[in-house]
């Protein structure tokens, strides 16, 4: 146990120094293996998604076998995705074959009239009613995963690995866009922009308080996610009105709570990377999915913010060990030895080759 505690402390120091843009002994590795771990550990997907204890063990066993410094999440329940996007999720063994991946099923569950409910009665009134009546009493269904999360993180720590993210923070656009459906919400921003913004502003009051309460469990970091809010989906005026002010405020709340903001940014954010320089230097992580060119992130933010990435899913799945290793070494050399954590873009695919994932990690660890 003492050796594992020493290993954990070494890895944690390496990661914290990297986030602070300090020079370290080597580039740390942080992976997200929530969909890869079940196949890697030969665990049935339907069992994995229905049992938080098994989920934690599967992710942890995979991480130990791979030899990574850190993982994003200690356990995973796909029903938690419904809290991000207020959309239903199809589950393996329930709606899908038992070894299939989960699927988000987006449809219009929120009406235009619901904006007024948010404005007049507050976000929490709308949100908890929505979870109960539109998402089949979702809160009860995710309570086991949420309750086990602190113990799951401790299990990872006890194994000498850093659980980097212990929560997620979501801006109004992600949840409301998912609830309305993307097509309907995009029209709302043009047809009733003032009402949309009024609902966002009211929602933020409760979202901020909910975030502060969630951080009482003291996670090391938290995702401040962006998916539908990416620059490639919105013109600059809409992005500056409906995206950035809310991301910035939630980031400030996260930092004030002593939690590391992890910008898990899917899709292309290249146009607006400079905005992230408004945030405190050496306090955050930019974690793209491969759509945002990592070299442009380096150019815009390399002296201001840690970057975590960005070995492509396609390379981990279809490439050779040598190709993955060479690409990973190239990232380490060209993105830099300071302020860079090696990892995959977004998530390790469920069908990635184990030898390729190990090749990525060995490029940094030398093992």
Automatic annotation (TrEMBL):
Residues 162-364 form the Uroporphyrinogen decarboxylase (URO-D) domain. One of its GO terms (biological process) is porphyrin-containing compound biosynthetic process. Pfam families: URO-D. GO terms for molecular function: uroporphyrinogen decarboxylase activity. InterPro entries: Methanogen_methyltrans, Uroporphyrinogen_deCOase. This is Uroporphyrinogen-III decarboxylase. It comes from Clostridium thailandense.
């Amino acid at each position: 146990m003492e050796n594992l505690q020493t290993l954990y402390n070494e890895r944690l120091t390496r990661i914290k120094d990297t986030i602070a843009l300090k020079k370290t002994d080597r580039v740390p590795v942080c992976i997200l293996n929530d969909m890869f771990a079940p196949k890697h550990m030969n665990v049935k997907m339907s069992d994995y998604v229905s049992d938080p204890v098994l989920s934690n063990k599967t992710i942890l066993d995979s991480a130990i076998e791979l030899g990574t410094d850190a993982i994003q999440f200690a356990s995973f329940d796909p029903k938690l995705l419904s809290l991000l996007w207020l959309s239903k999720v199809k589950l393996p063994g329930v709606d899908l074959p038992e070894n299939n991946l989960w699927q988000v099923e987006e449809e219009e569950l929120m009406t235009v009239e619901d904006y007024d409910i948010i404005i007049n009665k507050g976000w929490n009134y709308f949100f908890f009613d929505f979870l109960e009546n539109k998402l089949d009493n979702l809160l009860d269904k995710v309570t086991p995963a949420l309750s086990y999360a602190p113990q799951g993180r401790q299990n990872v720590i006890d194994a000498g690995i850093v659980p980097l993210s212990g929560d997620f923070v979501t801006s109004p656009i992600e949840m409301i866009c998912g609830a309305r459906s993307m097509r309907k919400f995009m029209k709302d921003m043009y047809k009733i922009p003032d009402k949309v913004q009024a609902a966002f502003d009211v929602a933020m009051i409760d979202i901020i308080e909910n975030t502060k309460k969630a951080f009482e469990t003291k996670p090391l970091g938290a995702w401040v996610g962006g998916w539908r809010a990416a620059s490639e989906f919105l013109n600059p005026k809409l992005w500056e009105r409906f995206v950035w002010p809310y991301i910035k405020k939630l980031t400030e709340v996260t930092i004030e709570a002593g939690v590391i903001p992890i910008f898990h940014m899917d899709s292309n954010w290249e146009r607006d990377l400079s905005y992230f320089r408004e945030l405190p230097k050496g306090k955050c992580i930019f974690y793209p999915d491969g759509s945002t060119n990592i070299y442009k992130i380096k150019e815009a933010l390399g002296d201001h913010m840690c970057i975590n990435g960005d070995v492509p899913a396609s390379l981990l799945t279809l490439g050779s060990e040598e190709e993955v290793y060479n690409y990973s070494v190239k990232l380490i050399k060209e993105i830099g030895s300071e302020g860079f954590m090696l990892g995959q873009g977004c998530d390790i695919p469920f069908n990635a080759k184990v030898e390729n994932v190990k090749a990525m990690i060995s490029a940094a660890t030398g093992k």
